[in-house]
Amino acid sequence: TWQAWALYMVLAANLSEEQVLKQACPSCDATQLCNCSSMGLDFIPPGLTGKITMLNLAHNRIKHIRSQDLQQAVNLRALLLQFNKISSIDEDSFDSLGKLELLDLSNNSLAHLSPVWFGHLLSLQHLHLQGNSYRDLGGSSPFSRLRNLSSLHLGNAQFSTIRQGNFEGIVVLNKLWIDGGNLSQYEPGSLKPIKMIKHMIINLRNTNVFSAIVRDLLHSVTWLEVREIKLDIEKKSLVQNSTLPFRMRKLTFKDSSITDEYFSRIMVLLKEITSLQEIEAIDCVLEGKGEWDTREIERSGESFVETVSVINVMIPNFHLFFDLEGIESQVKKLKSLSIVSSKVFMVPCNLAKNFLSLLYLDFHDNLLGNNRLDETICKTAWPSLQTLNLSQNSLKSLKQTANTITHLPKLINLDISQNNFGEIPDACEWPETLKYLNLSSTQIPKLTACIPRSLEVLDVSANNLREFELQLPFLKELYLARNQLKTLPGAAPIPNLVSMSIRRNKLNSFSREEFEGMQVGAVHLSLMECHRSLVVSLICVLVFLVVLILVAIGHKYHAVWYLRMTWAWLQAKRKPKRGPAKDICYDAFVSYSENDSEWVENIMVRELEQACPPFRLCLHKRDFVPGKWIVDNIIDSIEKSHKTLFVLSEHFVQSEWCKYELDFSHFRLFDENNDAAILILLEPIQSKTIPKRFCKLRKFMNTKTYLEWPLEEQQQEVFWENLKGALKS
């Protein structure tokens, strides 16, 4: 891009670095936050100073970072360079950035990583290097000086090798993310220098590499998340030659697939990680039909895992799936189970009876219906369960659902929201221990004695309720939002109520009786619901203030002037560009300030109109048509004149009348791109003193020669000859 550099050098010769920076990135002017993203930049703009703390150069076309580019940005805290074309960086480019905390070089074209780049970034906490083209991290550690590093993201589609020593210098990380979809070589012990990692994400397809990495992370990582792996048969132990205690608490598989054969093996292998408490599978595929080696699983002993989450797992051959017989021994110590968005319609009763320690069960967004609910929640199943979520399933009968739930003697919290019950019976049976019930969005039209009296929290939001008359002596929280209520619930039937949500109903007013005997601690109603007339008044006042502000802004920035100018310009545009020669009545229309009238009328007019041959001049005092709108007079006079004379002075620039005259005339003159304008300077005047909105006239003064009135008499003859020559041209 030598043309771009040549253009830059030309600009730099005439502008200061600050001006170049302002032109390349306007948001950098007088601000600590400099957003230069998506500006089409080929280079880092010069002029960066110590006042800038955040520099965003993402989504540009930068290819090279030079030594001097960031030399003055010594207070930079965040530098964003992602999605450029950076392929090379001078070794000392970042040396002055000792306060930098975030560096994003992701999605560029870096073919290697140099430890020298990061050697002076002692405050760096977040480093993003993913999406480049390097195949490895080199023979040593690029991060050896980054003692404060908290999060590191690296890897790409070509990244294939991790060697011992690559992570030397890093002791503690909150997050480590490695894009290693094609990672094929991992030297054992490479990740061991990192003593603690709270959360590690690795995209991985190679099962052997997965096993080696797990062995290295047993004592350092708390949560390991593996993505895109296809788990095949692996015989080696995951804790080979490792000593207790282990640190790993949670293992997540995301966007992965597993076969029947490896499912049995992985269950056995994971039991060896005695610290593992939680397993999660998200957006995974289980290939097979449940033909697991249950004998091998059972021989390996009980699992230490307490929490299992299965979210959006697909089983292509689910119609051939076995009934999971044989894994009962593995679920006895499980305390929390979530199977979400996985098309579950039933759990076999024999299996459900073995969840002896389960306290929390989440089946939301599945296909559970009343016809199979008795099988899933049969007698003596889930004996310790306290919380059950059956929301967003296919339950249709509230009465049948309640009767089935009675099989759970310790249930406290029940969520059956977003099921289409439609009707509610007059009476139902519930577990005596039930304290929380969520019936929101279930299409029930009323509330009956079916609602258990033992409740402390009831959510019936988003239904079709028109009244609330239940006796709930223990109720503390009541959620009634998005219903059709016109009055508040009575206070006497719910004496212990502490919190009530009643937003988006049809309440218009509250009576004193509705609050009798009940202290209101915290009412969360919208302002409109409480003070409708006040809100309407405030809106009117606000609208008035907005209009007033707009009028003030319009006056300050000449909005009316712009409207009038636009209308005049549109009118002028509809007229012919220039009348035929027979319509030309004057040699020149003269635009001048009243303060300069003595010179114009007594000197210039006399000199020109008494010349031989005489010139015909149009003066507003003498030649404007009385009673005609001044705008039309100006436009008509300009159109009937061969030239237009602007007699410029400080009085002219400060005159409001002259401003309008200039405004309405310069549309016609400069839109035609001709030489009809002649500028006469009665006194020295800078173009910058002309109002900024006359941009075409300012440009005209900077690019066209004008006549200056000389004070010496001997030079005035030359002035008149030049002016007459200009009028005749």
UniProtKB/TrEMBL annotation:
It holds the Pfam family LRR_8. Keywords: Disulfide bond, Glycoprotein, Immunity, Inflammatory response, Innate immunity, Leucine-rich repeat, Membrane, Receptor, Repeat, Signal, Transmembrane, Transmembrane helix. The keyword Disulfide bond applies. The keyword Disulfide bond applies. It is a single-pass type I membrane protein. The chain crosses the membrane at residues 534-555. InterPro entries: Leu-rich_rpt, Leu-rich_rpt_typical-subtyp, LRR_dom_sf, TIR_dom, Toll-like_receptor, Toll_tir_struct_dom_sf. It comes from the Eukaryota. Disulfide bonds join 28-34, 349-378, 428-450. Residues 1-18 form the signal peptide. Its main location: membrane. Residues 584-727 form the TIR domain. It is found in: Membrane. Gene3D superfamilies: Ribonuclease Inhibitor, Toll/interleukin-1 receptor homology (TIR) domain. GO terms for cellular component: plasma membrane; receptor complex. One of its GO terms (biological process) is inflammatory response. GO terms for molecular function: transmembrane signaling receptor activity; triacyl lipopeptide binding. Belongs to the Toll-like receptor family. This is TLR21 protein. It comes from Aegotheles bennettii.
